[in-house]
Amino acid sequence: MAELRLEELSAKTIVAANNLTLRRGQEQFVTPPSYAIADSFLNPVTSWPRVVLEGDKVVGFIRGNFDPEALQPEFRSCVWRVTVASDAQGTGVGKFAVWALADEARSRGFERLTAIWEPGEDGPEQFFLRVGFSIVGETQYGESIGELKLSA
Questions:
Q1: In this structure, are strands 47-54 and 57-66 parallel, antiparallel, or unpaired?
Q2: In 26, 79, 137, 151, which residue has its Cα 20 to 30 A from 143's Cα atom?
């Protein structure tokens, strides 16, 4: 596996990010990347959209949100979207992306990073638990709220 790196979402990478394919059954748990991409341009002050590249190939997309003024604490420093191409899942791409987002959150002075996911057999819960999140609550819709504590 070539070295992974992050790059800010750009005209050069947006099509590849939008065309990332998931494993069968995962689609129900993920908003299409095009929604996350559009949303990141609607809120450029708090949004942090990045693609993960392996060599020159886009293998993942992550969007974080940093809004210290958000009314709901779980939205102040959070993983808003993470998508890894089906053929790159299980190779460390998602972990790399989440830890890069955690580093960014830490550099902005946040003490935790949150994520919200829908429970389910093909859902992302096991991924988030493996990268260090703990379940700390539930939304009114039954989604899990996870937290990754960030040390200085």
A1: antiparallel
A2: 151
